[in-house]
Amino acid sequence: MADKPQSEIFTTGMATRRSVLGNAHVDRAEANKTEFDAPFQTLITEAAWGRVWSGTQWTKRERSMVTIALLAALGQDEEVAMHVRATANTGATAEDIREALMHVAIYAGVPAANHAFKIAKATLAEMAAAKA
């Protein structure tokens, strides 16, 4: 797969992506990248991480809470767990996660929030066990 020169926004995005998700996660994603999904990986690195997550209007903590709420509302279970794990790097607390999911219950429905609470509880428990 031929690499093209990286843009400044890509470089910024990769730095933000690593700061939020951690090097191990990003290294796994990069190692699994193929010619087929390389354009998609570039897109999310530039758009999501280089523009949205690298913006200056919100903190990473605030972005983390909003992202968890949106993913929970959309039923994106794997992404919810990934972003709950990322709170170790964004500064969002378990209480922040709970409040985001309470908003999900009101604005997106109790079943979505209930399922996301289960995912968040399990993920937070895994994180605590790994710390111990």
What can you see in these coordinates?
The protein has about 130 residues and is an all-alpha fold. The protein folds into 2 domains: about 5-55, no CATH class; about 60-130, AhpD-like. The protein contains 7 helices and no strands. It has helices at about 10-20, 25-30, 40-50, 60-75, 75-90, 95-105, 110-130. The longest helix is centred in the last third of the chain and has 22 residues, at about 110-130. The chain is globular. The model has no long low-confidence stretch (mean pLDDT about 95).
Quick structural gist:
By secondary structure, the protein is an all-alpha fold. Helix content is 78%, strand content 0%. It folds into two domains: 7-57, no CATH class; 58-132, AhpD-like (Up-down Bundle), CATH 1.20.1290.10.
CATH architecture of the largest domain: Up-down Bundle
Number of helices: 7
Mean pLDDT: 95
Query: What is the name of the CATH topology of the largest domain?
Result: AhpD-like
- Write down the CATH class of the largest domain: Mainly Alpha
Gyration radius, in Å: 16 Å
Question: Biggest β-sheet: count, sense, barrel?
Answer: none
**Span from first to last CA?**
41 Å
